[in-house]
Design brief:
Length: 116
């Protein structure tokens, strides 16, 4: 079993920055990939960024050049640095992890609100 705990969300003005963290704990901490998804009101959950165990990253087109995902394997933590935030980035951000056993886990979500 894996638990994911997100932190770092909040309210920020457009153009500002936030850094999200997701700490993993539990009995199976070997991951194929960890990533961030978001869900805005009335919309489907969408991929924001993902990082593989080998450090390969992938981003949604809407955040390329503004967001950076990074992992700390020693701390079992993944980060999402969000710069130049826009009102359309407002959403609940969820951490996701896929173990080497191909089991997927979600965090509880953290709210990010960007005011114009």
């Amino acid at each position: 079993q894996v638990q994911l705990v997100e932190s770092g969300g909040g309210l920020v003005q457009a153009g500002g920055s936030l850094r999200l963290s997701c700490a993993a704990s539990g009995s199976s901490l070997s991951f194929n990939a960890m990533g961030w998804y978001r869900q805005a009101p009335g919309k489907q959950r969408e991929l924001v960024a993902i990082i593989s165990s080998g450090g390969i990253t992938n981003y949604a087109d809407s955040v390329k050049g503004r967001f950076t995902i990074a992992g700390d394997n020693a701390k079992n933590t993944v980060y999402l640095q969000m710069n130049s935030l826009k009102p359309e980035d407002t959403a609940v951000y969820y951490c996701n992890a896929v173990t080497i056993e191909r089991l997927g886990y979600w965090g509880q979500g953290t709210q990010v609100t960007v005011s114009s």
